[in-house]
Structure formats: structure tokens, C-alpha cells
Design brief:
Number of strands: 6
Radius of gyration: 35 Å
Distance between the termini: 147 Å
Order of helices and strands: HEHHEHEHHHEHHHHHHEEH
Number of domains: 4
Helix content: 40-55%
Strand order of the largest sheet: 1-2
Strand content: 5-15%
Shape: elongated
Number of helices: 14
Largest sheet: 2 strands, antiparallel
């Protein structure tokens, strides 16, 4: 009887162990399957991540981004520069890609890239020292132009209407956005209701390259403001030391720009303006009268001097309410570093020379001598 019971227990134990082994095998198999799935998913995700990191940042982008590659830059430095400027997605993968493909020996210099470039296109450009993107349009905006004249140039060169350009640069909501974006140079001063055009004077004179067939008006305006920001920023402290704000400095520089054609003339004209302001004399500069009139004419007539406008410096004893044109950097420099003189008067002769005088009597003598 005890033997039967013992045999039954043995069989029961054997069955139990067999069932337990099957359960363990199932668990192990399940775990292995889960691990395989996890590894497969991880591998696929890793592959997709690496693949994505090697692809262009934005294949549809036409944005042009200028980067400077210094002499002697290592691959790490170049990768960091490209990543910081949004040319590549990941600097580490870019370096690994270079090593795997045995690439190097890049050329220093200034490049224009777009986020649509592949790794190979970027590498080829860096090896040959060639700028990848070629501009579709290259447009020069001269110094001393008004926003209205600038709008005319873009309307002539691009597929935009002058009226549309002027509508954008006079849109208050857009101007408020620009003030926030370019707070270092733009202020609420330009929103004064008596200012004819808020961005007058701030659309910098330069040559602009556009890499799209039809750039937006906003992108054009902001390219020009970027240039103004780059030019004005190094002088911000000097502007403050001179007792001016940026709006006053830009206004002053626009007057100097319209009255002078050389660095020496600009410095002397600037000194005359400062001397007049210090003695509460009106600046009496004809370009402000023409701007107040809103028209172009060869001569300013006596009757024109009576135009009632915050721009007319024959009627006010301060700077005009805002700039009357864009300016060159040399005019800004002359504004901040005028010549030392006691001149209060100047006039232009028919040859473009400027004659200065300390007294009204001397000024009249110059007029009789040099003006026909």
C-alpha cells in the first residue's frame, strides 16, 4: 500500500516538474521574444534617427545662411558652426560621417548654405571652398534714398508692386513686431503719428542677395534691418556717450548723408550741425524742406521754407522728427565724431565743393563769390 502511494507521488512530482519546466520555457521564450522585439524596435528607431540626422535639415528651404569657417578650424569646430547655424542637424553624426568617409582638408572662408543641402553637398563645398548657393537676385540700394525710392527699386527689379511694398512698411502691426525683434535699433519713436514712414532711414544702403525667385516683402525688409543692426550695433555705446538715442543718431546721419558726398565733408557738416544745435539755431538744411514737401525739385524756393512740418529745419530748432533718407556708415561715424570747428554756415557751389563760414557776413560773402 505504501509502495503504491510512493509511486503515485513520484509520478505527480514528475508531472509537476514537467509542467513547471514548460512554464519556465514559455516565460523564457516570451522574454526572449520581447527582448528581440525591443532590440528590433531599438535598432529600427536608431537607424531612423541616424538616417534623419544625416538628411538635410529642411529639404524645402530656400533660406540662405552665411557662415564663417575660420582658418585652422578642426572638424569638431566646423561641425559645431554648422549645427549652431542650422545647416546640419547633429554635429556628432557629421563628424562620424566625415571619419567613415575619410573626408577632411576643408577650406576656410565665408560660405552661403541652405538647410536643404545634403551632407555630401556641404562637404564638397567645404573641400573646394566654393559658396554653394548662388543668388537669384543681387540688388544694390544706394545711400541717401527714401523708403519710397527703395520701394521703386524693388518694384523694378522684382515681381512686386511698389504699393504693396509701401503697404507692408507702413503697417502698424508689422512695425510693432519689428520693434520687438530689432529692439536694439528700433523704438516707439518711429510710431509717432507725424512720422511719414516708420522705417525711413532704417533700410540700410547695401547690396542684397536673394536666393528665391520671389522673396517676400517681409524678408526683404528684414534683410535690410539685419544690415542696419550689424552697422549700428558697434556704435551703440558711442551713441549713448554722445547724448543721443539711436533714433536721433540715425536722423542726424541721414541729414549728413544728404548734405555731403565725402568723408571730409561729412565730418565738417556734422560739426556745423552740432554748433547750431548748441546755440539753438535752426539747422536750415534744404533736404529737410524737400522731404517735408514730399517731392523732388532742383532748388528750394523761399516760399518752400514756410512749409509747416516737423521735418522742416527752417521752422524748428532741433533735429527733424525722424530720418529723411537712409545713410552710409561714414555718415554715422561723422555724426558721432564731428570735426572740431566754429563753423555755423555752409553752402554748395556748382562744382560740388562746400564752403564754410563762422559768421553770417562771411557766409554772405561766400554766397556772392560762389553762387551764380
Amino acid at each position: 500500500m505504501s509502495k503504491k502511494k510512493s509511486g503515485g507521488n513520484f509520478r505527480d512530482n514528475l508531472v509537476a516538474r514537467s509542467n513547471e519546466a514548460r512554464s519556465v520555457r514559455k516565460i523564457v521564450f516570451t522574454i526572449l521574444i520581447v527582448l528581440i522585439i525591443i532590440l528590433a524596435i531599438g535598432g529600427i528607431l536608431g537607424f531612423l534617427y541616424v538616417k534623419s540626422a544625416l538628411e538635410p535639415v529642411d529639404p524645402t528651404s530656400n533660406e540662405n545662411i552665411k557662415v564663417e569657417i575660420p582658418i585652422g578650424s578642426s572638424s569638431t569646430t566646423i561641425a559645431d558652426i554648422l549645427e549652431e547655424n542650422g545647416i546640419i542637424k547633429n554635429g556628432l553624426f557629421f563628424r562620424l560621417y566625415l571619419k567613415l568617409n575619410n573626408e577632411g582638408d576643408f577650406q576656410a572662408g565665408e560660405y552661403t548654405f541652405t538647410p536643404a543641402l545634403t551632407m555630401d553637398e556641404i562637404i564638397e563645398s567645404l573641400k573646394t571652398g566654393k559658396v554653394v548657393a548662388e543668388p537669384v537676385h543681387r540688388i544694390t540700394i544706394p545711400e541717401g534714398l527714401t523708403v519710397d525710392q527703395i520701394a521703386g527699386i524693388y518694384a523694378e527689379k522684382l515681381n512686386i508692386k511698389k504699393a504693396d511694398f509701401l503697404a507692408v512698411v507702413n503697417d502698424k502691426a508689422y512695425i510693432e513686431q519689428l520693434i520687438d525683434k530689432y529692439s536694439a535699433i528700433l523704438s516707439d519713436d518711429i510710431l509717432n503719428e507725424e512720422i511719414r514712414t516708420p522705417l525711413e532711414g532704417y533700410l540700410y544702403a547695401s547690396t542684397y542677395e536673394f536666393f528665391e525667385e520671389e522673396p517676400s516683402i517681409e524678408s526683404i525688409v528684414e534683410s535690410m534691418l539685419d544690415q542696419s543692426l550689424a552697422v549700428i550695433t558697434p556704435y551703440l555705446e558711442t551713441i549713448k556717450e554722445k547724448g543721443l538715442n539711436v533714433h536721433e543718431a540715425v536722423t542726424f546721419a541721414s541729414l549728413v548723408e544728404k548734405e555731403a558726398s565725402s568723408e571730409e565733408q561729412r565730418s565738417e557738416i556734422s560739426s556745423v550741425f552740432y554748433n547750431r544745435l548748441e546755440t539753438d539755431m535752426p539747422l536750415q538744411t534744404d533736404p529737410t524742406v524737400l522731404y517735408a514737401l514730399g517731392k523732388h525739385q532742383e532748388r528750394v524756393l523761399y516760399e518752400d521754407l514756410e512749409v509747416d512740418s516737423p521735418y522742416n529745419t527752417y521752422k524748428i530748432s532741433t533735429l527733424p522728427i525722424g530720418p529723411i533718407a537712409n545713410f552710409s556708415e561714414s555718415s554715422l561715424i561723422a555724426t558721432l565724431n564731428p570735426a572740431e570747428s566754429d563753423y555755423l554756415y555752409f553752402l554748395h557751389d556748382s562744382e560740388g565743393e562746400i564752403h564754410y563760414a563762422e559768421t553770417y557776413e562771411a557766409h554772405l560773402k561766400n554766397r556772392d563769390e560762389y553762387i551764380n
